[in-house]
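Form 7-S
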Amino acid sequence: MTNYTLIICIALAINVSITYYSLAGKKNNTHSSITDNDVHSVKKLKIKLHKSLLMRYLCVYLMAAVSDWLQGPYVYALYSAYGYIQSDIAVLFVSGFGSSMIIGSFVGGMADAGGRRKFVVIFALTCIASCFTKHVKDFNILLLGANL
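Output:
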């Protein structure tokens, strides 16, 4: 078993256990005093609000995802222009994706608990910091920037 496989298995086990324990703690609360008409109107309102939120979310998410996808080839060319060989560039990319996989598993819950607006600002600041590290040719600084 390689180191990467071991790390992925450990991260998967941690994610599965956290998901299991978080779902086990939730209880289904129902109130018997609510009429069927009230339940139906509440469901309609929830569906309408959900669709509105989904459309706003998808627009912003798609813009962020497309900008990130467009950045990938240029970052590779930048690392290549700095004189790094393909294996060094692979380490930079894989470490960035790996840290995103591990940290991204917990940030959603942290944002729910700490406030989404605050975490969006934190995301923007770390993204800016990551972009600033791209201007330094030192491998360790680039590695830090890839993992922000």
